[in-house]
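Good morning N.,

You mentioned wanting to compare the apo and holo forms, so I went ahead and generated the holo version with magnesium ion. This is what I fed in:
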Amino acid sequence: MNGPYEIFDNRFRDLVLLNVSLRKLSGGHLWTEGPVWFPAHQCLLFSDIPNQKIYRWMCDGTVNVFRDHSSFANGNTRDAQGRLISCQHGTRSVTRTEHDGTITVLADQFEGKPLNSPNDVVVKSDGSVWFTDPTYGILSDYEGYKSTPEQRHHNVFRLDTVTGELASVAHDFAQPNGLAFSRDEKRLYVAESGQSHDDTVPSVIRVYDVVGGNRLENGRDFAAIEPGLPDGFRVDCHDNVWTSAADGVHCLDANGVLLGKILVPETVSNLTFGGPRDNELLITATTSVYAIHVNTAAARGPKT
Ligand code: MG
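and this is what came out, ligand included:
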């Protein structure tokens, strides 16, 4: 098979394409993250965290600055109304960019104290915003402002955007990172990337049952990731998990079985599905952003 693949299970052959190559969309950055595709605008937004910018890649190949002084924005997603939701290390907050360009702070404290540094975010089909809050953005002045954590835990949070209530739904992590729901939203996957600073922490994606639509129970390991760490990941329309790793993008089935890899020449931080025909994997990897056509697409959440 051509292409930059490692195949461990024949099911992977049906998910990728022959005779396609990994294309570099943008380069020269410091640490890219937070890729999110906007169908209405036919563009990809991604963060360069240390450079404090959110960039925009357009289908004609141009790349420009979407937001300067991004407050060390990290993970991004879009809500059902097509609005940008961003995790910002510098303000230790999760924000929403409204259609008129104004920025609304969705969450910046819990139990009266500042959040650590929101890292990655996903919106459930009921409109609730789920995000992780590790300390990466306050450990140094490189990806935020060095500060002493004030939260007791490194939480996974659920924000009710109707009532404004912020609830900790899990905190059994060294450093929670990327997160994504299964197609039916009955499971939430969360990356444990704490091995970055502690060799004793397993490099794993964990999975929880979503109970009552708003609580997590029965947390357990879903899959070990190696080499490297799981950072951001996405679930496709077949319920496969496509995750970042040191050597590229790993594709796991819904039981955590490794089906194959797309090899990428730089350490991958995150990825998303998108492109004009919604059949490309858009990959942030260290100094660059890459794209490759695939034979799958993003999961669509259940209708509410
Ligand atoms: Mg992350």
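The radius of gyration is 18 Å.

Happy to go through it together on a call whenever suits you.

Best,
F.
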